[in-house]
Amino acid sequence: MSASGQKRSSSISKSRAFQIGFEAPIQGVSMRITQDLRANEILRIEHLLEGFNYSIWINTYGPFDLNRTLEEQLAHSTGNEVIIGGQSCVTSSEARSEVTEQLLHVGDGGYGPLDLNAKRSEILNLLEDLFMHVRLDQASTITSFWLTKGHPSYPVFWDFAFDIQNGGKRWILMGSSSD
């Protein structure tokens, strides 16, 4: 928040895949209006996990046809030049466990989400909705990957990224935490 209480657009404009914006001149002043178009589950999870020296970012991209490589699709979706550093096939159970474990990371005395235990049940319910949205349990192929260049956020404590494919379509689920 800025000193005037207005949300700075830089705090939510982390990827063009979830924003729209336009310049609106008001009495000679140019103002950028940004709207976060990500799923309500994502916005709520991020809100619930706000904390001391701690914030998280989650996004989903897709569904897309499989006519692009993963790097090409990420570059197109995020507007960043992307280089994948590594990848491996995982099961839906492994992906589910990794995402859940990362999002429920308690931190330590210097950082972490506030009142995590009180919010745990709601977070888990929202995660189920998110997993349904990206068709995690119906996937024919799930690839875990990490980026050496072009991450749409700023991972500090943890991050996850999955390429989820089913029925000729691709969904990408990514998340990270920062201070």
What's the overall geometry? globular
Number of helices: 4
Radius of gyration from the alpha-carbon trace, in angstroms: 17 Å
CATH fold-level name of the largest domain: Protein Transport Mog1p, Chain A
Helicity range: 25-40%
- CATH level-two architecture of the largest domain: 3-Layer(aba) Sandwich
Mean pLDDT: 84
Structural category is: alpha+beta
Strand content: 35-45%
Spatial strand order of the main sheet: 4-9-8-7-5
Through-space gap between termini: 15 Å
> How many separate domains?
2
- Biggest pleated-sheet summary: 5 strands, antiparallel
- H/E element order: EEHEEHEHEHEEE
Low-pLDDT parts are 1-24
Number of E strands: 9
The top-level CATH class of the largest domain is Alpha Beta
Protein model, in words:
This protein folds into 2 domains: 1-37, no CATH class; 39-178, Protein Transport Mog1p, Chain A. Helix content is 27%, strand content 37%. α1 (40-48) runs antiparallel to α4. Residues 1-24 have low confidence and may be disordered. The chain has helices spanning 40-48, 70-78, 92-103, 116-133; strands at residues 19-26, 29-36, 51-52, 55-65, 83-90, 112-113, 141-149, 159-166, 169-178. With 179 residues, the protein is of the alpha+beta class. The two termini are 15 Å apart. A 5-stranded antiparallel beta sheet has the order 4-9-8-7-5, sandwiched between helices. Strands 1-2 form a two-stranded antiparallel sheet.
